[in-house]
Amino acid sequence: MVVTRFAPSPTGYLHIGGLRTALLSYLWARRNGGKFILRIEDTDFSRNDEAAALAIVEAFKWVGLEHDGEIEYQSSRLAIYQEYAQKLLDEGKAYKCYMPKEELDALREEQTARKERAKYDNRYRDFTGTPPEGLEAVIRIKAPLEGSITVHDGVKGDVVFNVADILDDFIIARADGTPTYNFVVAVDDALMGVTDVIRGDDHLSNTPKQIVVYEALGFPLPKFFHVPMIHNSEGKKLSKRDGATDVMMYKTMGYTPEALLNFLVRLGWSHGDQEIFSMAEMLELFDPRDINRSASVYNTEKLDWLNSHYLKNMPNEKLCELLEFHGVILVSHDKKEILLDAVKERAKTLVEMATLINEVLVRPLEFDEAALKKGYKEESKAILEAFATALKNSSELHLPSDYHHVMETVVAQLEIGFGKIGQPLRVALLGKLSGPGLDSVMAIIGVEETLARINALLKH
RNA sequence: GGCUCCAUCAUCUAAUGGUUAGGAUUUCAGAUUUUCAUUCUGGUCAUAGGGGUUCAAAUCCCCUUGGAGUCACCA
Fold first, then answer.
1. Where do the domains of chain A lie?
2. Strand B closer than 7 Å to the CB of A189?
């Protein structure tokens, strides 16, 4: 069975980069009928934020990812970590170190000054004497002193680390007894039966340490897949400073989960020339072994394109539902089908769509200066009046085509081009020169409101 | 700075060692549309540089350059 996990530290909202690794882990687990675990890495109590786990779950819910079982909180598993640390102590694979923090810092400073690598000097590695009084010990694991550790990575290939370059007897439990990251990750992944670790490649250099823990504890190694980072336009790791990194921000900006997920899955992964992937297709096609080795730059233009694609192809009923979040309530509107059909092809986001809808539904309070100048000329008045009269004399106006017919008649009568009536009418109805088709707009707001808006412009 | 990773259009990417280096987004031009948008058609744009190996290199090897990540009693 394939077991994957997403293991964020609860420092805030769900990050867009986190969502991507979560998605990939989720896809791989589901594709194999396995399990996808959500584990909160909250062993550093000073940095915990209780709301964070909830925020992550909320974001998962929005995009439709679902984890299996209960959320695992590392803070509630401290006894387990202590047990395994003790086991290593008992077996002589770890030891207590009484070196004070200040002394360690001083040592590091010296080493750095000498241009050496900062590392612990193993002074307590084989200590058998009496421990110094009044000092709290940390627990250090005995890391190999020489040789190399190879990470067999499903994305990067075999990555060899020289022990002398990167390792020392690193701390697995702090002086206050709480365990540290590299220790708990290995313990938990092993205990929870995680078979495939899919995570950001910023963790690649941690992996040798975790392998040391796995081996000391006699746990079998999982498969590792270190997926490349998402970069910002400057080519750096995406961070909070880059603006929209909170997944839930995408909801407020009017993106759909389908578009966001589709966008993310195509960063660093592809399937031939295919651009559009439904969740079903992702589940059928995704394989972590196909992930690219290089980082990709996050750019919103493609996201926008995907989002408009999904918007265009969404049933009106669903659109109606989603628009409520953006303050547009259409359930009981009898012309909502015409309205939605008229706006769905011209909006990149739900926010834009909501704006478009309001521009149709709400009588314009003012007329755009430039639009007036360009679209409402001297001759326009008479044309609008003629059109208003024609409207009043028509009956049974319901569909856009009915209104279109009236326009045609007037245009023919006055022997003018469509533009001569379209421009001023557009100014009257919408207050500006762009927007949905006029026949649709009139069908949506009805004859009375159409006449009222024309009147308002004539009196302007 | 040490260690590690990475390198195809502006961006996301495709290409059993053999293709006029393909697609998508963006952009530009044209068509459609009373407007805007959509849609359609077409165009511009790439194998970082240098050495090898090979009949043949985007693809394999080496070097250079550039970029990124990471080096805690954070995760």
1. 78-227, 314-361, 369-459
2. no
Residues A396-405, mean pLDDT to the nearest whole number: 92
For A36, counting Cβ atoms within 10 Å of its Cβ (0-12 exposed, 13-18 middle, 19+ buried), the class is buried
Confidence tier at A135 by pLDDT (50, 70, 90): confident
CATH architecture of A369-459: Orthogonal Bundle (1.10)
* Domain A78-227: CATH superfamily, name plus number: HUPs (3.40.50.620)
- Does residue A45 surpass a pLDDT of 70? no
A9 touches strand B (CB under 7 A): yes
Within residues 412-451 of protein chain A, the ones with CB less than 7 A from nucleic strand B are 418-419, 421-423, 425-426, 433-439
The SS3 of residue A22 is: helix
- Rounded alpha-carbon distances, angstroms, from residue A181 to A119, A195, A207: 18, 19, 11
Residue-wise pLDDT tens digits, A329-341: 998 899 999 999 9
Percent of the residues in chain A that have a pLDDT greater than 70, as a whole number: 99
The mean per-residue pLDDT over the stretch A186-214 comes to 98
Q: How far is the CA of A237 from the C1' of B69 (A)?
A: 9
Q: Is the CB of A297 under 7 A from strand B?
A: yes
Residues of A with catalytic roles: 240
Closest CA to A391 of A381, A379, A404: A404
